Amino acid sequence: MKIVFSTNDFQIISPFQFLRQAGYHALEDRRSQNLSFVRRLGANFYPRLHIYLQNIDDKVIFNLHLDQKKASYEGQKAHSGEYDSELVKEEALRLKLLLRKLILK
Fold first, then answer.
1. Cis before 15? omega within 30
2. Taking a C-beta distance cutoff of 8 angstroms, is the pair 23, 42 a contact?
3. Which of 30, 31, 65 is nearest to 48 (CA)?
4. Which of 2, 42, 76, 89: CA 20 to 30 A from 24?
């Protein structure tokens, strides 16, 4: 699920700081060197909420999904990801409300 914000929404706090405050931790892919952010839903590494961050023009885009488990086959990136589940929709709403609350302080 893509959540689109304006860059104006991040004048007080950077997207990285915001995600940390929302309970996410940076995760660097060792192979691709790409940075993403995860929030565990329990004591184990999976399931977890996973966000890829993009800056395009005047927009900050969070590409959010739920990773249910690690890729089943070694060398594969495919996983049991959910992009439109109820949990993902609830998390998208939580992030929007948290950012609005921070902006209005």
1. no
2. no
3. 65
4. 76
**Structural domain count, the chain:** 1
Class of residue 24 by CB neighbours under 10 A (exposed 0-12, middle 13-18, buried 19+): buried
- Residue 78 CA to residue 4 CA, distance in Å, equals 24
Q: Tokens at residue 28, please? A: 């660097």
Q: Domain of residue 98: give its range.
A: 2-104
Tell me the pTM: 0.88
Strand partners, 5: 60
pLDDT in tens, 41-78: 999 999 999 999 999 999 999 999 999 987 665 555 55
